[in-house]
Design brief:
The complex is a heterodimer of chains A (135) and B (292). Chain A is mainly alpha-helical. Chain A contains 9 helices and no strands. The model of chain A has no long low-confidence stretch (mean pLDDT 93). Chain B is built from 14 helices and 8 strands. Helices cover 44% and strands 11% of the residues of chain B. Chain B has 2 domains: 2-121, Glutathione S-transferase Yfyf (Class Pi), Chain A, domain 2 (Up-down Bundle); 130-288, Rossmann fold. The chains are: A mainly alpha (135), B alpha/beta (292). At the A-B interface, helix 1, helix 6, helix 7 and helix 9 of A face helix 8 and helix 10 of B. The complex binds iron/sulfur cluster (2 copies).
Amino acid sequence: MSYEISRNIVKNELVDKIEELSGQNVFDCYQCGTCSAGCPVVEYMDIMPNQVMRLAQFGATEDLINSKTIWICSACLQCSTRCPKGIEVAKVMEALRSINLRKRVGTLDPNKIETEDLQDLPPIALVGAFRKLTG
Amino acid sequence: MNLPYYPGCTLKANAENFEDSAIKVMEILDYQLNEMKDWVCCGTVFSMTTDDLMLQLASIRNLLRAEEQNLNELVVLCSMCYNTLQRAKKFITEDEENLNKVNDLMYKENIRYEGTVDIVHLLTVLKDRVTFDKIKEKVKKPLSSLKIGGYYGCLLVRPKEFAIDDFEDPTIIEDLFSSLGADGIAFPYRLECCGAYQTITKKDVTIKRTYEIISSARRAGCEAIVTSCPLCAFNLDQRQKETSEEFVEFEQMPVFYFTELMSVALGGGWNKNWTKLHYVNPEQILKEKGLI
Ligand code: SF4
Ligand code: SF4
């Protein structure tokens, strides 16, 4: 991946939105990588949690909004708990999901869950997934 | 002694064995779990965005109902309900503007939500009020030689302000099982996420998590895992079916709610109806150890 860094794209409106929704200052991150090191599902992500923070600093918000990462994150809070700078990375992930969900973009269409799965799945899995993944 | 209790949805469905065994165990310990009236789903997952208060209403309405019923606390069994109720309460009550807005949203309610109800996990009640020493005295069938891995997952320990024990090195489950005569083993992956609700859209991710978590427990010498979260239980137990198909060398392991094994140890026995809510046969190991 290569990125053009320019004065124009740093801190665009979407960065403000991410900061507002997450309550975090993305410029606090100093790229130690602790968040990615502890993330249990990092192997499935296209952009690692520390890279999410870095791209947010660069204003590369489109890449973040369209990433697979934000839909793989299971909000386990490991990153938030371990960040030495006290950044709640999980809240940044949630902000990125919410920006999509509020435009009705999500990864789970309730009508497409197989009947067999529906019979097995507990309410806790269904309601949780609807709230995090359905736009 | 009476304890006001919030069950949550899954304890009335796929995790009836959890509720049933908890009520039984608490009776043996001279406590009565009294289900609160008119509860609804807590919303399951805590919403972390700063601006959308509607998403907190499910949790807050339960706490409001409890205030209406003059309860000063709610005992919760499900780790996820515990976590979500705690975080929603904090988010709404620590900021007066949020508190006022949420009350405006609930303008049809008869009383104002104030935030007076404490939320307590059953494990905390067992440790601090019943005490593990008292539990030890009541043991009828010590779980001797049973090697138990306590699986905390995320919700009992994160965020750290709501951790029921040390958030990085908890021992509460291991200590409980020591008092029941078992060998409580702190295995490396006990605080690692099971993949949670990703079990629907990213089944492959949860299968791999289950493989890694159960294998970690196996390597540490565990013979069974205990949990207090119905979603962890679903992923770690039911998903072992797919895990076995995916990883040929995978060895299955029974997964229990901690209260089921407490029932066995405290003389409440094993209820046959609990067995069908498990995927990996839970009775086999208990029979092998002469516990049922
Ligand atoms: S742990 Fe914190 S400071 Fe380190 S890379 Fe992640 S967000 Fe940045
Ligand atoms: S909250 Fe998301 S990004 Fe953070 S460690 Fe957990 S899965 Fe990874």
